[in-house]
Design goal:
Largest sheet: 9 strands, mixed
Helix content: 25-40%
Distance between the termini: 23 Å
Shape: globular
Number of helices: 19
């Protein structure tokens, strides 16, 4: 089994040295990430740099292995697209027999070509006794003869049959899968993202990860343990899905003392701007301690009163560190749509809004002199104290810490017949890999985790409930939260995936 990976176009146009460096970084990232693929010891996985492509190879032909590799490659920054490649040798470059190539094309595509239009695209490298057009016509003619109700459409085909002839090697490609694009981690400099767990900050963090910046998370806790639990979920999700090749930090800062000071000392209309300035100042202290080059926020122009150009200008003057706002021109619905696409939307919906301070009549054009006058009332040492008291942990350890915290919550691999399983995944995940009662032998209810806290109070109290999600992290976090609310009839369902067809 082989997958061929193409680099993002912005990498391929860089100088030879830079392109080679980015390619090596991507290869190393893939080696780390693909360690999660369940392979037999006899079929180790190899990742090979070939200048114009990267090849992922294994002797295994297990479709489940192919599906796992495919799933992982979708979420690695730096990949433009990838495809499974089926290779065969030309028997003679001058008088080549195209029959084996046609047979391979039909083996891959015939089931999906009936009643559809197609085009054959051939690329060649090297000297051959035939042209690309010769091979395209032969394959196209063979498909028309052997697959029912197909037709050729060279402009807008339903299916593209892609073949690459590389000297004496022929590659017949399967589906072309889009990658994330961007740059491999960490080819850009380190940044600190102000993560609140909402739609905006999660998407902004993703954007910087995708562009190859090692993105640490700085969280200002305004809502207690439940707020922090939700944001830790968001940070872990982003790391595990898009950045697991490198360690990231999660810095949690109790910002309640700062908010209390603002509420008691600052003019009502200026509270929002002063709060943002204090957050940036605090994040700048964090950034300097971990050698980060910039701060990242999820602010979008005009979305709220503090995000007018005038106010953003005044807010930025509070720090010397560069502030990046990747969502600055995006509409809220665009941001939500992107959150849906990357998978953070459901987590964001589960996290209540914690505004910290609410101005009755917030200013949209803060005056610098007025801001300076109000901030003169604040304790300049308070920010250093809250940073000193901050909790710092590796994001990759969040899952492990959660395991330790939920030791009192039962975790089972097999049901006994008396439980009810609650599938807490999003609707899209449930549709893609459904969990059915027939699979587990007990009733299965579908309650997305962002509705679980409310819905659980309405469930029968005389039953034992097992929470299920694919990775197990979110179900453990939710079980921990429910346990803290006093529910003892909740556990976690973690089946052995090989024994359960999902």
């Amino acid at each position: 089994m082989k997958f061929v990976i193409r680099l993002h176009a912005e990498i391929t146009i860089k100088s030879k040295g830079v392109r080679k460096r980015y390619g090596k970084v991507l290869v190393n990232n893939l080696k780390k990430i693909l360690q999660r693929v369940d392979l037999p010891a006899s079929s180790p996985l190899k990742v090979v740099w070939c200048w114009d492509r990267i090849e992922v190879k294994t002797a295994s032909q297990d479709p489940l292995v192919a599906a796992q590799i495919n799933e992982e490659l979708q979420h690695v920054p730096g990949i433009a697209w990838y495809s499974q490649s089926h290779e065969l040798e030309l028997n003679d470059t001058e008088q080549a027999d195209f029959t084996p190539i046609l047979a391979q094309v039909l083996a891959i595509w015939s089931d999906r070509l009936a009643h559809r239009s197609f085009a054959v695209r051939v690329k060649r490298k090297g000297k051959h006794g035939f042209s690309s057009l010769d091979l395209e016509r032969y394959i196209g003619g063979g498909v028309l003869q052997q697959v029912e109700a197909t037709r050729v459409d060279l402009k807008k085909p339903d299916v593209e049959l892609r073949i690459e002839v590389d000297n004496e090697i022929v590659r017949v490609f399967g589906d072309k899968q889009q990658g994330l694009g961007g740059f491999p981690l960490p080819t850009q400099e380190t940044v600190v993202s102000l993560l609140s767990g909402g739609f905006d900050s999660s998407v902004a963090s993703y954007q910087l990860i995708r562009r190859g910046a090692r993105t640490h998370f700085c969280f200002f806790n305004l809502g207690g343990d439940r707020h922090e639990t939700g944001v830790r979920q968001s940070a872990y999700f982003l790391w595990e899905k898009y950045a697991s090749s490198h360690p990231l930090k999660f810095i949690s800062i109790d910002f309640a003392p700062v908010v209390e000071e603002i509420l008691t000392q600052v003019d009502n209309g200026l509270m929002g701007v002063v709060l943002k300035r204090q957050m940036l100042r605090t994040a700048q202290i964090v950034a300097r301690r971990i050698n980060a080059s910039a701060l990242v926020t999820g602010e979008a122009l005009g979305q709220v009163s503090s995000q007018t150009l005038s106010n953003l200008s005044v807010i930025d003057e509070a720090v010397e560190t560069l502030v990046l706002r990747p969502l600055i021109t995006m509409d809220k619905q665009e941001i939500i749509n992107l959150a849906e696409h990357i998978g953070t939307a459901d987590i964001s919906r589960s996290i209540p809004e914690y505004c910290g301070v609410i101005s009755v009549k917030p200013t949209v054009k803060a005056q610098r002199d007025a801001i300076a006058e109000e901030e003169a009332k604040l304790d300049p040492e308070l920010l250093w104290r809250v940073v000193k008291a901050a909790k710092v942990e590796e994001v990759r350890h969040i899952g492990e810490v959660t395991d330790e915290q939920v030791h009192a919550v039962s975790e089972v691999e097999q049901t006994s017949g008396d439980e009810v399983i609650i599938d807490i995944r999003s609707s899209d995940e449930q549709e893609l890999k459904p969990l059915r009662s027939a699979d587990v032998g007990v009733p299965v209810e579908h309650i997305p985790f962002f509705k679980l806290a409310t819905a659980f109070t309405e469930l029968a109290t005389d039953k034992q409930y097992l929470l299920y999600c694919e990775k197990g992290v979110m179900s453990k976090l939710q079980a921990l939260y429910l346990q803290e609310q006093g529910f003892t009839n909740v556990g976690v369902f973690q089946p052995k995936q090989k024994g359960l067809e999902l």
